[in-house]
Design a protein that fits this description.
The complex is a heterodimer of chains A (about 325) and B (about 425). Chain A has about 325 residues and is mainly alpha-helical. Chain A has one domain (about 1-320). Helix content of chain A is about 75%, strand content about 0%. Chain A has 14 helices and two strands. Chain A has a two-stranded antiparallel sheet with strand order 1-2. The termini of chain A are far apart. Chain B has about 425 residues and is mainly alpha-helical. Chain B has a domain at about 175-335. In chain B, about 75% of the residues lie in helices and about 5% in strands. Chain B is built from 16 helices and four strands. Chain B has helices at about 5-40, 45-80, 80-115, 120-150, 170, 180-205, 210-240, 240-245, 255-270, 280-295, 295-300, 305-310, 315-320, 325-340, 350-355, 360-390; strands at about 155-160, 160-165, 345, 350. In chain B, a hairpin with a 2-residue loop joins strand 1 (about 155-160) and strand 2 (about 160-165). Classes of the chains: A mainly alpha (about 325), B mainly alpha (about 425). Chains A and B meet through helix 2, helix 3, helix 4, helix 5 and helix 13 of A and helix 2, helix 3, strand 2 and helix 16 of B.
Chain lengths: ~325, ~425
């Protein structure tokens, strides 16, 4: 039961990183210049999916609160600065994208676009840092509280934040290669390929930083996954690079999507059966079962929400289907 | 500084902002459903124009509702980890249901509605708006279920120092839920109706274009506001009975209060168990504003032969009354939430025990940072809302037909 909910929590957060990830990637790519038309075209490509992407984060947080209340409190307050930064970024992107085209003035729009760029950067740094923070364990005391916040200031957290920025940027560029009119997609595919190299370097750096960290080595309950999954991540990025070169943006997008979902799987698998590994008192580590809500709550949530999951996925799929394909002159423009 | 005070200030700021925006969201979406349904049923293009104009304002407003809502959701874990620890088994469930069953679909539907003009069949497009509205109401319901549990915890038992769910049905029949939900929904309708009437009045005062369009929305707004204000007052007074029974200290008085305080003193030690006077002040001013807004009924006879427009003074009154529903919404929230103090869960968990064990520096930085961020975004949002409201219904970007294909590149400014 707890495992099913843990998997569902992981699924929602991973899908959020995949879908929200290309929002942030596109957001970061607004900084590359090229004039207002190009920025508007990029936002039009995201257009109909934008509101449906961030809901995965809200739903993941809902599952966290409902099914893992103890984890919710300790995770969010124990990583306060990292979560607050990600949250500020999420808010800035949510509002910036929705409002940037409402002023008619070009300078006001450019200012909103800078809000979106900054927000995308913060969100990617924050979520990357949070995943790394989980992987290196937390100073969880026997009283069940995370003591202090100094534990988040490590080279590994910084490297993982930067790696996440690189990953979402590649992912965003690949998404635009898939969505923009064919004529605009070709130069973007080249940009995306160059970005893959940057992402490979950033992920390699984060992997090395993690491997060198005593805390990560001590916290990993199943080191095999912690070693193996980064290589799957490298492979996904290489597949994306090859697919971009062969003009197969769909395959490339699937590969970068996998690259964004993999870190969540890595953290979940490497720490299992724990979710918060204590660096100060091994007995204080919080297991998935210990973090979960009690039986009646999980049963209630299961009965009320699981039958609705097909509807949630179905309406999301409807959105993807209705607005599938490349944007053209007749694509609806609103953001 | 005291982290508890800082955390409470942050919650108050975020909640107040959130409530202002979601009241408009809930009120306007109801009116939009009426407008678009009328358009699809009658085929009258006037209703299409009304839907696009008010729909665009609704969408602008929606942005801040989401932003403040996300911060609210995460704040429970960031600042109030004790709440999750002791009562998360019960309190978390309705919030989880809200995100999965309601908000998730609401936003997904809205994205398709915004971009679905001229692409989806009319019936499907209308169904999406109905979906947005129904899930918005479901969202309000589940949030109120969670909030009512904080007011009057039911359906749980405490084992090993942690609350466990025993009877979910009790959460749904909570005496502090039913009337309060009706009150909140009616308040949102009142806010939406007054907003629609006031914006229309501004256009009619200024003799802008589209007289007929704003005449129609003035009438819809005023009638909605009048009906809603009666419901607000009805549901409001209906709450005194149950609240007096289960929360005797909230608005004071009664023999139960002394007995309850004695019981708390025995269980939790001596302390000040009276809520701050702010709760009573909020209640008093809210009732006063409610009575004042009841006067909207006096404007209805003036709709006959457009006397309301010809006399002009009633238009000014409608416009100047716009801040009132917003003030009342905030005051009502203050009465309910401050009246719960010093408890986060009434009679079960003192507020001081729910705050996260993080340092005052972090809490202060968070308070300042998020208040500045959300405050700046809210002000920018309000200014854009006002500008779009003033611009009128000539070609809103929402629902604009796509440009004919081979046209030469148009300057971007045309795309508003």
């Amino acid at each position: 039961m707890e495992l099913a909910w843990y998997a569902l929590l992981g699924l929602f957060f991973a899908v959020y990183l995949v879908l929200g990830g290309y929002d942030y990637g596109v957001g970061l790519l607004l900084a590359r210049g090229g004039g207002p038309d190009r920025r508007r075209a990029a936002l039009t490509a995201v257009g109909p999916f934008f509101l449906g992407n961030e809901v995965w984060l809200v739903a993941a947080a809902g599952i966290l609160f409902g099914a893992f209340p103890t984890l919710e409190g300790e995770l969010l307050s124990g990583f306060y600065p990292v979560v607050a930064a990600a949250l500020a970024g999420v808010v800035a992107v949510a509002v910036g994208v929705q409002l940037r085209s409402r002023p008619a003035d070009g300078r006001a729009r450019a200012a909103w676009d800078r809000v979106v760029v900054a927000g995308s950067l913060l969100a990617a740094l924050g979520w990357g840092g949070l995943l790394a923070g989980l992987l290196q364990g937390v100073p969880l005391t026997a009283a069940g509280h995370v003591a202090g916040l100094g534990h988040v200031v490590t080279p590994f957290v910084a490297a993982a934040g930067i790696a996440m920025v690189a990953l979402v940027t590649v992912h965003g560029a690949t998404f635009l290669t898939l969505r923009l009119p064919a004529a605009d997609a070709a130069p973007l595919a080249r940009t995306a390929r160059r970005l893959v190299a940057v992402a490979l370097a950033a992920v390699a750096l984060a992997t090395v930083a993690g491997g060198l960290s005593d805390r990560v080595r001590a916290a990993a309950q199943r080191p095999l996954f912690a070693v193996l999954l980064p290589f799957v991540l490298f492979a996904a990025l290489l597949v994306a690079r090859a697919a971009l070169a062969r003009r197969r943006p769909g395959v490339a997008f699937a590969a970068t999507s996998a690259a964004l979902a993999l870190p969540v799987a890595l953290v979940g698998a490497a720490l299992w059966p724990h979710v918060l590994v204590s660096t100060v008192d091994p007995a204080a580590s919080l297991s998935v079962a210990g973090a979960a809500a009690s039986g009646p709550t999980l049963a209630l949530l299961g009965w009320l929400t699981v039958p609705l999951l097909p509807a949630l996925l179905g309406f999301q799929a409807m959105c993807w289907w209705v607005f599938r394909g490349r944007t053209d002159g007749r694509a609806p423009v609103y953001w | 500084m005291d982290p508890l005070l800082l955390a409470r200030l942050q919650f108050a700021t975020t909640t107040s902002l959130h409530f202002l925006f979601v009241a408009v969201t809930l009120g306007l979406v109801t009116l939009l459903v009426g407008l678009q349904t009328a358009w699809v049923l009658t085929g009258n293009p006037a209703y299409e124009r009304l839907t696009r104009f008010w729909g665009q304002l609704y969408v602008i407003n929606y942005a801040l509702g989401i932003a403040t809502g996300i911060v609210m959701e995460f704040q429970f874990g960031l600042n109030w980890s004790g709440l999750s620890r002791y009562v998360g088994n019960v309190f978390g469930a309705p919030l989880a249901i809200e995100t999965l069953v309601a908000f998730f679909l609401e936003s997904t539907f809205l994205g398709m509605w915004i971009f679905g003009w001229h692409r989806l069949r009319r019936g499907v497009h209308l169904a999406l708006l109905w979906g947005v509205a129904l899930t918005a109401y479901a969202s309000a319901f589940w949030v109120m279920v969670a909030n009512s549990w904080l007011q009057h915890p039911v359906g749980y038992e405490v084992r090993d120092g942690v609350a466990h769910l025993t009877d979910f049905g009790a959460l749904l029949t909570n005496p502090t839920l039913g009337m309060a939900f009706g009150h909140v929904v009616a308040a949102a309708l009142l806010t939406g109706g007054m907003l629609m009437a006031a914006v229309s009045a501004w256009h009619l005062i200024r003799h802008t274009a589209d007289f007929t369009l704003f005449r129609t929305s003035l009438r819809i707004g005023l009638v909605t506001a009048a009906l809603a204000v009666s419901l607000v007052v009805g549901f409001g007074f209906a709450q005194f009975g149950p609240v007096g029974q289960v929360q005797p200290t909230k608005f004071g008085g009664g023999a139960d209060q002394g007995a309850l305080v004695a019981e708390w003193t025995a269980r939790f030690g001596p302390g000040d168990y009276a809520p701050p006077v702010l709760a009573d002040v909020g209640l008093g001013f809210m009732i006063m504003i409610g009575m004042l807004l009841g006067c909207v009924w006096l404007l209805l006879p003036l709709l006959w032969r457009d006397w309301i427009i010809r006399l002009r003074v009633p238009l000014w009154i409608t416009l100047l009354a716009l801040p009132l529903p917003f003030a009342a919404v905030l005051l009502g929230w203050i009465a309910r939430e401050v009246g719960r103090q010093p408890w986060v869960v009434y009679g079960l968990l003192p507020t001081g025990q729910a705050v996260s064990p993080v340092g005052p520096g972090v809490m202060l930085a968070s308070l300042i940072g998020f208040t500045l961020l959300l405050g700046a975004l809210a002000v920018a949002n309000g200014m854009l809302f006002a500008r779009y409201a003033a611009r009128g219904a000539a070609d809103p970007a929402l629902g604009r037909p796509p440009a004919p294909a081979p046209e030469p590149a148009r300057p971007m400014s045309v795309l508003a």
